[in-house]
Amino acid sequence: MPADLLSASELEARLRDVGARRYHSLHPFQIRLQSGQCSRTEVEAWALNRYLYQACIPQKDAHILARMENADDRRAWRQRIVDHDGEHEGEGGIAKWLKLTDDLGLDRATVTSGRLALPATKFAVTSYLCFVRDRPLTEAVASSLTELFSPSVIKVRSEGMLANYDYVTPETLAYFNKRPVQAKRDSDFALAYVTEHAKTRAEQDAVIAALEFKCSMLWTMLDALEHGYIYAKPWPDAFHAEDGAAKQAAE
């Protein structure tokens, strides 16, 4: 083994360190959301903008799936698409996210159109899809490794939102029920994949950089929400209070 090549445990440690320092659970808006400090407009804006990311997940997984030459790898990876799209209409993670936005009083057609999402959200999602399409396959797979960090974050977020927002119910947050188990399964596979296929130190460094990119993409989405809804005002064509239930709730 080359002297500078990271062992499997060293590579995993480096990847986990990325999450410890860069995962969006550390973002001030995320902390605000789960600690009950967000206004209803901010919660609605978060859910509406996050939908674009949720909707892109099976698309990015299809890009990765199409590039996998090994049938066993494809069989493992395609479950991610089923998890989000479901086997039938009305099933899967995307449908459950729309249940969340429905319960918040958002118009479903407006949410799915993406027309009220912040420009930075649209740019971030597009950049992610381009990344998994254009970068080497091992890097594309590595970008999914934010799932290493999501199970514990999901628990904190769900408990915090249920405790602090009386308009949020367990049914509203049904999307998150299966995600810890799914994320553990998927991150175990992706970690084993990148460990096997990153054969040089340069490839290992690229894998780490891919995870840093994904963390920056998620962080950017929260930066935009924080700026637009707390410190300034949102883009003129983006979501405003009058587009959601917050105005009616205030009245």
In short:
The chain is mainly α and 251 residues long. The protein is built from twelve helices and no strands.
Give structural notes.
The protein is mainly alpha-helical and 251 residues long. The protein has one domain: Heme Oxygenase, Chain A (Up-down Bundle), CATH 1.20.910.10. The protein contains twelve helices and no strands. The protein has helices at 8-22, 28-34, 40-67, 71-85, 92-103, 108-113, 119-134, 137-142, 150-164, 179-197, 201-231, 246-250. Helix 3 (40-67) runs antiparallel to helix 5 and helix 4 (71-85) packs parallel to helix 5 (92-103). The radius of gyration is 19 Å and the shape is globular. The termini are far apart. It catalyses: 6-(2-amino-2-carboxyethyl)-7,8-dioxo-1,2,3,4,7,8-hexahydroquinoline-2,4-dicarboxylate + 3 O2 = pyrroloquinoline quinone + 2 H2O2 + 2 H2O + H(+). Pfam families: TENA_THI-4. It is an enzyme of class 1 (oxidoreductase). Keywords: Oxidoreductase, PQQ biosynthesis. Pathway: Cofactor biosynthesis; pyrroloquinoline quinone biosynthesis.
Broad CATH class: Mainly Alpha
3D shape: globular
Fraction of residues in H or I helices: 55-70%
Roughly how many Å apart are the termini? 68 Å
CATH homology group: Heme oxygenase-like
Q: Helix count, per DSSP?
A: 12
Given helix and strand content, the structural type is: mainly alpha
Output the radius of gyration: 19 Å
User: What name is given to the CATH topology?
Assistant: Heme Oxygenase, Chain A
Report the portion of residues in β strands: under 5%
Largest β-sheet summary = none
**Second CATH tier, the architecture:** Up-down Bundle
